[in-house]
Write a structure and sequence with these properties.
Layout (H helix, E strand, L loop, with lengths): L3 H10 L8 E6 L9 H10 L4 E4 L6 H14 L4 E3 L13 E7 L5 H15 L5 E9 L7 H6 L9 H13 L4 E5 L10 H9 L5 E4 L5 H10 L3 E4 L1 H5 L3 H5 L1
Parallel strand pairs: 1-2, 1-8, 2-3, 3-4, 4-5, 5-6, 6-7, 7-8
Helix pairs in contact: 2-3
Bound molecules: SN-glycerol-1-phosphate.
SN-glycerol-1-phosphate binds next to strand 8 and helix 9.
């Protein structure tokens, strides 16, 4: 069976063969109007996205089930949960980024939420993908910082960012996610992306504050295996059309 993680590994090993680099559209269920879901799905289907991520810092659980079911009806892309806490788990999705906020020192987001999620996950068939989640300073306080009550890593301390990613890999995480935070003023720098991607062996996800279509390619070229776009698409459903 080809799992979502194996597909990411394959794309990392041979990006040319997979046709395009990976791109996820992040949908925050709290910001989606289910009455307009058909237009949203149509736009996703026209976009170069390869994955849909679903999640947010604060989300009511019942909306997630409904949103995932609606997307599944008209869109064949894999749906990966990107949960802020265990209440955001839906067995209707395909996989879950099992995040540990390894840049922070709040034990709730390092291990407590994960322990509490286990009984819920055991009842699902979700593919669980252990992910080292690293929040990087981006010019202003972001929702992740506020909700997790953790400080992001300084963007000037690149060695420490790299060490954090490498510690994640050594702990057995299968993905590293460099996060500037949703709606961040400044996305993660290409320099940091290149440094991390060249010094870890697992796939690298990059997201937060990417608002310019042409930056997607630059971020891929810097070393990201999967780029995440949330706010830019949320604010403008023609984000991908306009720039193609
Ligand atoms: C947030 O990385 C994602 O967790 C996406 O961020 O909403 O800024 O695109 P944006």
């Amino acid at each position: 069976m080809s799992t979502i993680y194996n597909q990411i590994l394959k794309a990392k090993a041979n990006p040319e063969a997979s046709g395009e680099k990976l791109l996820a559209i992040l949908l925050d269920p709290d910001k989606i109007d289910l009455d307009n879901i058909h237009r949203l799905i149509e736009k996703i289907n026209q976009s170069p996205a390869t994955h849909i991520f679903v999640g947010g810092s604060i989300v009511r659980a019942n909306i997630i089930d409904e949103l995932v079911s609606e997307i599944k009806k008209n869109c064949g892309l894999p749906i990966v949960l990107f949960p802020g806490n265990p209440s955001q788990i839906s067995d209707k999705a395909d996989a879950i980024l099992f995040l540990s906020l390894i840049s922070g020192r709040n034990s709730d987001y390092l291990i407590e939420h994960q322990v509490n999620a286990v009984p819920i996950l055991k009842k699902t068939n979700l593919e669980v993908i252990p992910t080292g989640y690293i929040l990087i300073e981006s010019g202003a306080e972001t929702a992740v910082e506020r909700v997790s009550k953790t400080k992001p890593l300084s963007r000037n301390n690149q060695e420490y960012i790299l060490q954090t990613a490498q510690a994640g890999e050594m702990l057995g995480k299968k993905l590293i996610y460099l996060e500037a935070g949703s709606g961040a003023k400044v996305s993660v720098s290409k320099e940091i992306i290149t440094l991390v991607s060249q010094n870890i062996n697992i796939p690298l996800i990059v997201g937060g504050g990417i608002t310019d279509f042409s930056d997607i390619e630059k971020i891929h070229n810097a070393g990201a295996d999967l780029v995440v776009i949330g706010t830019a698409f949320e604010n403008n459903l023609n984000f991908f059309n306009q720039n193609l």
